[in-house]
Amino acid sequence: MLIRKANLSDVEEMHGMVNIYAEKGLMLPRPRSMLYEYIRDFIVVENDGEVVGTCALHIMWIDLAEIRTLAVKEGYTKQGVGKMLVEYALQEARELKIPKVFTLTYQPGFFEKIGFRVVEKEAMPQKVWKECINCPKFPNCDEICLEINL
User: Fold this and answer.
1) What string of pLDDT tens digits covers the 150 residues of the chain?
2) How far is Cα of residue 129 from the mean position of the Cα atoms in its chain?
3) What is the DSSP string of 45-69?
4) Quick check: helix, strand or coil at residue 104?
5) Alpha carbons 30 and 28: distance in angstroms, whole number
6) In 62-124, beta strands by DSSP E
7) Nearest to residue 56, comparing CAs of 65, 47, 77, 64?
8) pTM of the model
9) Exposed, middle or buried: residue 107 (CB in 10 Å: 0-12, 13-18, 19+)?
């Protein structure tokens, strides 16, 4: 398996993978336009030319980034693909000298195994919430916030 930065030709596979989980209520849906707009944030894992996992490291501020849109294709779960993606994103954050990374998720146990810890959403800076206004669950967010200090 190969891990790399995403490119525009990956968007359709990424979109399909993410929205399969969104339809099951396991993550928030992402429109194609968002994936294209933030393509430079995204990382993918490919196996024999097929995208089998994706996530993004989205920089919020000088000292804060978010891991978002983590999805692994069905049939590739529990094989280390998600962990590979998160570790790549964390390494990228270290290289950029970002001291704190957070995520909002319905799968806190996965992130806790990597070293994240649960924190109160309300403790996060307001800049974290600028995109929440467009979320279908706003203002009743039921995701769990976790963070890791690097």
Assistant:
1) 999 999 999 999 999 999 999 888 888 888 999 999 999 999 999 999 999 999 999 999 999 999 999 999 999 999 999 999 999 999 999 999 999 999 989 899 999 999 999 998 777 655 555 565 555 665 566 788 899 999
2) 15
3) EEETTEEEEEEEEEEEETTEEEEEE
4) strand
5) 7
6) 64-72, 100-105, 117-119
7) 65
8) 0.89
9) middle
